[in-house]
Design a protein that fits this description.
Blueprint (H helix, E strand, L loop, with lengths): L1 E10 L3 H9 L6 E4 L4 E8 L2 E9 L7 H8 L4 E7 L3 H5 L1 H11 L7 E7 L13 H15 L2 E6 L8 H17 L4
Parallel strand pairs: 1-4, 1-5, 5-6, 6-7
Antiparallel strand pairs: 2-3, 3-4
Length: 181
């Protein structure tokens, strides 16, 4: 069977950096659409074809109201952070609140926090460790009964990129199974 899955992407790395993350790493199996930042990704998980519809949302605060309508109905979210910038990590709670406020779902959707620039971490003293992010994720999951996963990604090599889509896709397939007769 084939299933559409709306995903929203938001985060603090520069907009061009996030576009590079989509366009370069997914070269070959990701299609960018001209105009709004929107892309499709097709993936087979457990014999099911998932059609990811990815909306990359601008972090610009002047478009917050416009951003809110794209969250509505999303079945998953990706928050990208730059692990070399503490302010990027510190913005995660506001992104989570925005997703949870505007999503319109009664159930918590899966959220992947993607750590970018992991290859630069050793060079920058203020970098955020994977352990710090994992503790944050564990606390949020426990406090809010959330479904947040942290995945560090090397956007230069593509390391761990597939894990983002596998996590989101497996959650969605399991979610749909509860409605089977």
């Amino acid at each position: 069977m084939s299933f559409p899955m709306k995903i929203v992407m938001i985060g603090d790395p520069q907009q061009s950096r996030l576009l590079e993350f989509i366009g370069e790493v997914f070269r070959g199996d990701f299609t960018l659409i001209p105009g709004p930042d929107f892309a499709f990704k097709v993936m087979n998980i457990g014999g099911n074809t998932l059609n990811f519809q990815v909306y990359q949302l601008s972090k610009d605060p002047t478009v917050k109201n416009e951003r809110s309508r794209y969250y509505y109905g999303a079945l998953g979210a990706v928050i990208s952070i730059d692990v070399t910038q503490p302010s990027s990590f510190e913005s995660i709670p506001s992104w989570l609140e925005e997703i949870w406020t505007y999503n319109g779902k009664e159930t918590m959707i899966p959220i992947v926090i993607v750590g970018l620039n992991i290859h630069e971490r050793a060079k920058i003293h203020e970098s955020i460790s994977d352990n710090t992010i994992e503790i944050f994720v564990r606390e949020k999951n426990e406090k809010h009964n959330a479904r947040i996963q942290y995945i560090p990604v090397n956007e230069r090599t593509g390391e761990n990129v597939a894990k983002i889509w596998e996590y989101l896709g497996k959650w969605y397939i399991n979610y749909l199974r509860q409605f089977e007769s």
